[in-house]
Write a structure and sequence with these properties.
Length: 242
């Protein structure tokens, strides 16, 4: 083999290697695109798997206004009403306990002021006699005036406590309506449950859903272009034949 033939062979081999490199690069790009698509599909599947079972496919925050609320524990009506009645009853019981404690404190303070009232009344009687017997002693007149002022303030405080007690009793009477509201909600719950059982009985079938044949997703006449194929129709007829 001459030197010229050897040079030509080497030149051709180099060209083949370059084209092979180019082909390998295209394959790598294609494989990388497939891997990227698979990665996107996996991410979408993971996002869908995080959704509750009752959330329909395609339900997102952006498309939420196109769908009814998903049947989760947070959106089930009877669940929510049961929570409302339970929590309202608990909170009402706590409020009644607080009001009762306040009422007891007011009654105790009113009793204490009544005792002070008796002492001040007794002092006024005493200083009234001393002032009348010793009109020249200014101290008796001064103490009489102070006791009369204190007695007036005590009586005003007792009246305020009694008014507060009456207001608390009114609050307790108003809180009784909470129990009436709870009973109304429970009545609504019972009607909803009875209606749900009636609807389930009304739509009940003799064939289990697992044994029921599947229906065609698209048929001729639908507004979209996707119709059932011949294979789908034949498979459906075969299921009917079973």
């Amino acid at each position: 083999m001459t030197q010229e033939e050897l040079d030509a062979l080497m030149s051709g081999a180099a060209g083949d290697i370059d084209s092979l490199d180019e082909e390998m690069t295209d394959e790598e790009i294609a494989e990388e695109e497939v891997v990227e698509e698979q990665k996107e599909d996996d991410e979408e599947a993971n996002e869908n798997s995080k959704l509750p079972r009752d959330v329909p496919l395609g339900y997102t925050d952006e498309t939420a206004h196109h769908w009814p609320l998903p049947a989760t524990d947070e959106n089930k009506m009877v669940h929510q009403l049961d929570d409302v009645t339970k929590e309202s009853e608990e909170k009402a019981s706590e409020i009644f306990d607080i009001i009762e404690n306040i009422s007891n404190d007011l009654m105790e303070k009113e009793e204490n002021l009544s005792n002070i009232n008796e002492v001040l009344t007794s002092n006024i009687e005493l200083f009234t006699k001393l002032t009348a017997k010793f009109p020249d002693v200014q101290a008796f007149a001064t103490q009489l005036e102070k006791n009369e002022t204190a007695l007036s303030e005590v009586e005003e405080t007792i009246e305020a406590l009694q008014a507060s007690g009456d207001a608390i009793m009114n609050v307790m009477d108003i809180m009784q309506y909470q129990d009436i509201h709870r009973q109304k909600i429970e009545r609504v719950i019972n009607v909803m449950r009875a209606l749900s059982k009636y609807m389930n009985t009304l739509f009940e079938g003799r064939i289990d859903d697992e044994k029921r044949v599947s229906s065609a997703q698209h048929i001729v006449g639908d507004t979209h272009n996707d119709v059932a194929s011949t294979e789908d129709i034949e498979a459906l007829l075969a299921q009917f034949g079973q």
